[in-house]
């Protein structure tokens, strides 16, 4: 999943679904060490890749 995100989504704005009400949105700032980092309005969200169920372009 990490290489897929880096190759296809780095720098893009995406939505990330982690189950239940947990949907995160932001620009893919980094993806390393099994952690996805999203940036939105100067704030960063760090998501464990193994918790991601689905992601898509916003």
Automatic annotation (TrEMBL):
<dbReference type="InterPro" id="IPR054192">
    <property type="entry name" value="DUF6897"/>
</dbReference>
<dbReference type="InterPro" id="IPR048163">
    <property type="entry name" value="MM0924_fam"/>
</dbReference>
<dbReference type="Pfam" id="PF21838">
    <property type="entry name" value="DUF6897"/>
</dbReference>
<protein>
    <submittedName>
        <fullName>MM0924 family protein</fullName>
    </submittedName>
</protein>
């Amino acid at each position: 999943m990490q290489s897929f995100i880096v190759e296809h989504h780095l720098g893009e704005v995406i939505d990330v679904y982690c189950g239940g009400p947990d949907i995160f949105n932001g620009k893919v700032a980094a993806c390393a060490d099994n952690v996805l980092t999203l940036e939105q309005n100067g704030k960063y969200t760090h998501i464990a890749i193994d918790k991601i169920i689905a992601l898509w372009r916003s």
